[in-house]
Structure formats: structure tokens, C-alpha cells
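hiii so um. not sure if this is the right channel but i have a protein structure encoded as C-alpha cells and i wanna go backwards to a sequence. like what aa goes where. can anyone help
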């Protein structure tokens, strides 16, 4: 087994194409592959582990390395983004050898959007599996929502259930005494200081450092994100939010909020008002997926976890049969100081969909 070098991205892409799915986006988009796995264990390697035999690569395991922390203390973490083994080698237990090797130097690793079969294996390995990565939603513009539900083949009864079960978008006025501004090169380091001094000491999860935000939102090769900072009356940074508008079939969209991190309730109201102003006219629904309690400020915008399992987590195209993300955590309790279950259920946790491999193009590419 060995980690691919950064000049061997084409080998990893070919492995995904041959061992997993020929049309998978990571088998065709080298820029996306390098962005996702480029933060390897050192400057020369990708976060992509392979096992080779005479016929070539017979198994692979990809890891997105992430800057986890525990109340400001740095931890080595990651997201397991793919593990696949060639059929002739599955009975040998190669996959069960590959995954621990990929995880070996990590304190915390998350896997999101896993299958029920993988969940069984993870439980046997001692990972904490939870049935749904927590998600909150609210319904957007009526005409756009109806177009979305019809296009996704919801029956009349299912459409009524969505309409009556999910919460509605709330008009959120501007919060007096707060100012919102785009995150940019001029204020990024100021945010970094605010993160280290005001936010990190009270949170566990993935650190929102300047380096991480730059990579996650500015350097993404496929998507364009919007990121806002909130300042209070004293000019102090007191919150951050990030989102992207997802194009859906039929000329409509959904707003996916990737980050919502207020310092307090008033800052949460200010961030929610900024998001309210940014919602496009043709938005069918708004969603946010996160562990912990920081998401609760989005209730000011109308988001609720009620009815969240009625809307597809996939968007290209929407699949009403897939409305939740099965997830798992492996935590080195000795190094972190708490179990995986305690980590996931901690109210101080701040891990969002942005810290997984699920905010990516769910499209099949043609050869």
C-alpha cells in the first residue's frame, strides 16, 4: 500500500473509474480530484491511498484531511471520502486492511453518506454510526417549490405532506447595530484572530481558520460560494456564514448554507437577516446540515428539523428516495479526550456539511 504522489492524480482517477463508477465526477475532473485530496500527509503526497497487484490498482481509499480541534487544541482529522476494492479481492479483507491504514495517523475521522452495508462494517470496527447527519430546512417560494416537487416526481399526497410538515421561510429584518460584509483578502486575517480568540475556545470540530476557509470556499474548482462576516456596534467580528445557490431542474434553485457560526443570539439574527436578503426569487427551499447547536440561530430564518427527511439531499437530479445522510465517526478517545458518541452529541460541536465530501457535484460524466 502507498499514498499517491501529487503527480499521480491520473492514477487515482483511473482507479475510481475502473473500480467504482466510470461516470463519477472524480474520475473525470482532475482539478476537483486535486482540490479534494491535495491536502495530503505532506507536501509531496495526495490523501489517496492505493493497494497494487500485478494487474494494477486493486483498492483505494481517499481521505480529505481537515483541521479538527478540541476547544482550540489542534487535532489531526479527516473525512473518509471513498474506499473501494476490486471484486476479486473483497473476500480477502483487503478493504478492512486499507481503511485502518488510511486512518492510522488521524485523531478523528468522519464518513458521511455511507451505505447501510458500510455502516455494518463500521459498527464492527467500533465507529459511532448515526442514522442522519442533522439537517434543518424551510420551504422557499411557493411556485418554485411546486416546480421542484413535480419535477422530482412527488405524488400529490407527498407534495401535501411536504407542504404541511416543513416550516416556511420567515421574513427576517435587519438587526440594529450590526454590519455585514463579504469575507475578502482584507479581512481574512482579522477573521482568523476572531476565530482563535472568540470562537475556538468554546467549540470542538473543524477549525474555521483563514487557511481552511481559503481552501474550502475560494479555491473550490467547481462551485462559487458567498461568505459574510457580521460585526457588532463596536466593529468586532461576531459571526460568519457561507452558502451557495444550487441550480435545480426547471430553472429554480435551492440555498445550501454551509456555515452558520454566530457568537451569540444577536449575531445569529444579524446573519439570518443577511441570508434572507440573499435568497433568490426562484428558491424552492433552504437547507443547513450541522452537528451541535449553532444552527439554532437559523430558526430566525424559518429553518427547522421538522420535515427535513422529506426533501432530497441530492440535487442533480433530486432523488426523493434519498433524504438523509447516514454517517459515522471514529475518534481516538485517548488523544481527543472523549468518545465518538460524546463528540457527535456535544452541544459544542461545530461540524457542517462543508466538512464532508457531500457538497460536491452529484452528476454522471460521459466518457
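sure thing!! here u go:
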Amino acid at each position: 500500500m502507498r499514498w499517491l504522489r501529487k503527480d499521480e492524480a491520473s492514477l487515482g482517477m483511473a482507479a475510481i473509474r475502473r473500480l467504482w463508477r466510470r461516470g463519477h465526477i472524480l474520475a473525470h475532473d482532475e482539478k476537483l480530484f486535486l482540490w479534494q485530496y491535495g491536502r495530503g500527509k505532506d507536501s509531496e503526497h495526495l490523501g489517496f491511498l492505493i493497494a497494487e497487484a500485478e494487474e494494477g490498482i486493486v483498492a483505494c481509499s481517499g481521505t480529505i484531511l481537515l483541521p479538527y480541534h478540541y476547544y482550540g487544541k489542534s487535532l489531526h482529522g479527516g473525512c473518509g471520502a471513498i474506499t473501494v476494492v476490486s471484486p476479486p479481492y473483497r473476500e480477502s479483507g483487503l478493504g478492512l486492511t486499507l481503511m485502518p491504514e488510511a486512518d492510522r495517523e488521524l485523531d478523528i475521522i468522519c464518513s458521511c453518506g455511507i451505505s447501510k452495508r458500510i455502516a455494518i462494517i463500521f459498527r464492527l470496527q467500533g465507529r459511532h454510526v448515526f442514522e442522519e447527519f442533522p439537517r434543518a430546512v424551510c420551504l422557499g417560494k411557493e411556485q418554485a417549490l411546486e416546480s421542484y416537487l413535480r419535477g422530482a416526481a412527488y405524488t400529490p399526497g407527498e407534495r401535501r405532506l411536504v407542504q404541511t410538515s416543513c416550516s416556511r421561510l420567515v421574513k427576517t429584518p435587519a438587526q440594529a447595530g450590526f454590519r455585514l460584509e463579504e469575507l475578502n483578502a482584507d479581512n481574512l486575517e482579522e477573521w482568523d484572530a476572531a476565530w482563535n480568540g472568540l470562537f475556538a475556545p468554546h467549540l470542538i470540530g473543524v477549525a474555521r481558520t483563514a487557511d481552511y476557509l481559503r481552501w474550502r470556499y475560494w479555491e473550490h474548482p467547481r462551485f462559487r460560494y458567498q461568505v459574510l462576516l457580521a460585526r457588532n456596534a463596536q466593529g468586532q467580528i461576531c459571526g460568519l456564514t457561507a452558502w451557495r445557490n444550487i441550480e435545480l431542474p426547471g430553472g429554480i434553485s435551492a440555498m445550501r448554507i454551509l456555515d452558520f457560526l454566530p457568537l451569540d443570539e444577536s449575531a445569529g439574527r444579524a446573519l439570518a437577516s443577511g441570508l434572507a436578503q440573499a435568497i433568490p426569487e426562484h428558491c424552492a427551499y433552504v437547507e443547513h446540515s450541522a452537528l451541535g447547536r449553532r444552527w439554532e440561530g437559523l430558526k430566525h430564518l424559518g429553518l427547522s428539523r421538522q420535515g427535513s427527511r422529506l426533501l432530497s439531499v441530492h440535487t442533480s437530479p433530486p432523488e426523493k428516495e434519498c433524504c438523509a445522510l447516514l454517517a459515522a465517526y471514529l475518534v481516538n478517545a485517548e488523544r481527543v479526550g472523549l468518545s465518538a458518541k460524546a463528540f457527535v452529541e456535544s452541544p459544542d460541536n461545530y461540524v457542517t456539511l462543508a466538512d464532508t465530501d457531500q457538497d460536491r457535484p452529484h452528476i454522471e460524466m460521459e466518457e
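oh and The first helix runs from residue 9 to 19.
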